[in-house]
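Re: the request from the purification team.
They wanted to know what the chain is likely to look like in 3D before they choose a buffer screen. I agreed to run a prediction and write the result into the notebook, where they can find it.
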Amino acid sequence: MANYVAFVRSNYFRVKDLEVFKLFMAGLSGGEGAIFINEKPEDKSLLMFHSSGVPSDPENEECDFFIELREHLKDKEVAVVMEIGYEKMRYLQGYTWAVTPGKDVMHLCLDDIYDKVEKEWGLIPTQAAY
C-alpha cells in the first residue's frame, strides 16, 4: 500500500505578534514532520511556513487550522497555503487556501476542474487517477 506524501508551504505574510504565532505553531503537528517558520531576509516582519502536511492539533480534532491562523494575521494580510501531494503516480493532488482576518476561508482543489469542464463545456472527462 502506498502512502500519501504531501508538501505544504505558505506565502509570506505578517502576524500581530510573532512570538505568540510561533507558540501557536509549536503546538501543532505538520503532517509527518516538523513545521518550519522562516522570516524573509529582506523584511523580518514577513514570514512563511512549510511542512509535510497542513498543520493540525493532534490533541484537538475540532481545531480548524485556517480559522485559528486567521486570528493571528494582521489586518489586510492574506495568508495563502498551498499543498501538493501524491500517492505514487496514481493520485496527484493540489489544494490551496486563502485566509484573511474577518473573512471566510477560500479553498480551491485541482479536482475542481472536472466539475468546471462538465459545467462549462458539457463534457465529462476521465479522471487523472489510477
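For the purification team: Strands lie at 5-10, 36-40, 43-51, 79-87, 91-99, 106-109.
Please add any questions underneath this entry.
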